[in-house]
Amino acid sequence: MADIFDKIERNRGPIGQYSKGVHGYFTFPKLEGELGNKMIFRGKECLVWSLNNYLGLANHPEVREADAKAAEQYGLAYPMGARMMTGQTSEHEKLENELAEFMGMEDCILLNFGYQGMVSAIDCLVDRSDIIVYDSEAHACILDGMRLHTGKRFVFQHNDMESFDKQMKNATRLAEQTGGGILVITEGVFGMAGDQGKLKEIIEFRKSGKYDFRLFVDDAHGFGTLGKTGQGAGEAQGVQDEIDVLFGTFAKSMSSIGGFICAKESIIEFFRYNMRSQMFAKALPITITIGARKRLELLRTRPELKDKLWEIADALQSGFKNAGFDIGATNSPVTPVFMKGNLAEATNLTFDLRENYNIFCSIVIYPVVPKDVIMLRIIPTAAHTLEDVNYTIETFKTLKEKLDSGAYKADELAAVEVDRKK
User: Which is it for strands 107-111 and 259-263: parallel, antiparallel or unpaired?
Assistant: First the structure.
């Protein structure tokens, strides 16, 4: 018999294998100071493009005041227990009602954590006779939710409607044998590359009568950033009322923690009494709930916040395009910048960017993107300025020249001295 720990020592995982050389710098970095466009990294001020603080609400004075007052009145313990037992409050109910109204849907259920909620919601919706059809670029929380599914699942190539059609044929054929239904899962905005899911095209398959299915959309990055009112990708594509189950999170536009699901009243009622992650876990602290209500109020009543986000995003994306950079097919604020290079070049480039140009953005490498591709993921926010945009584009031009000239070539990853104990 093997020792399970021996296996762990032999295989640290695709990213974990590099942990000794990258921990504390490329992975698990510490950004300190006030949340905003500039923060402190390793003792120096950096221009930060890595926070999902889309509307700049993290340090909005009204948000800080609401959070502080709620914490002073209730602390972080209240309510104690899961909502079904002792964790229900009128503030939780008010937030659910306000979210449902804002999203134009019948009802809403709060989630303690977005990731955990998505995993549990998928498990709750389907049984072994049902079939799931999902996009190949689906977020990890969706993939983990499907691991709990004991039935069959089919994956279609990312945003490829021919592939979707093919997999729906397979799913329909199997569903006729099992007597189950089909759940299609995709995203409103794909968080790595920034392109919107093809919700309208998927829904057309159902409206035409070709296939029968229910649609579950993870719109974590679209909520608050897309659509006339900020409802998300469904509103932007004119199909909000065709989405059956809509997931959103407080961790992006609302700069908080937790999430929600909107759907018909009967579906939400089913979730309340069957979604294990909410039935058996402590309710969201009331301080977070009250803070989320203030954030939703600002999201709803201050359209200038979204306008400022898009002013920055449009300037950033057009600036990169005009400078000849590949930013993929993004049609959301998420801005990926693709370059060619191996892992060592990626770390050297990122080290140069942070240490010599004081810009902090996330580096994405294989297996998230193909081998020999470097993706620098930039998240614009309403807290950024046009000066930030211009400096970043000019800096990236310099980096690209260095990369192309071979300045970052190396046999090993960039070596960075980091005190792992601090």
Answer: antiparallel
Q: State how far the Cα of 250 lies from the Cα of 260, in Å rounded to an integer.
A: 8
Q: How far apart are CA 59 and CA 247, in angstroms?
A: 25
The two three-digit tokens of residue 323, written as one number: 């400078």
Grouping H, G, I as helix, E, B as strand and the rest as coil, residue 369 is coil
User: Rounded to whole angstroms, how far apart are CA atoms 219 and 309?
Assistant: 17
Strand (E) or helix (H) holding 359: strand 359-360
Mean pLDDT value across the chain: 93
pLDDT confidence bin for 291, thresholds 50/70/90: very high
Nearest to 185 by CA among 230, 236, 221, 145: 145
And the tokens for 101?
A: 């109204």
Distance (Å, rounded) from C-alpha 219 to C-alpha 242?
14
CA distances to 39, 100, 267 from 263, rounded to whole Å, are: 39, 8, 6
**For residue 14, cis peptide bond before it (omega within 30 degrees of 0):** no
Q: How confident is the model at residue 417 (pLDDT cuts 50, 70, 90)?
A: low
Does the structure show a pLDDT above 80 at 14?
A: no
Instruction: Give pLDDT, residue 239.
Output: 97
Residue 370 carries which side chain, given as an amino acid letter? Answer: P
| Cα-based distances in Å from 341 to 29, 172, 348 | 22, 42, 10
SS3 400: helix
How confident is the model over 135-150, as a mean pLDDT? 94
Under DSSP, the state recorded for 197 is P
Structure token pair of residue 50: 């890595």
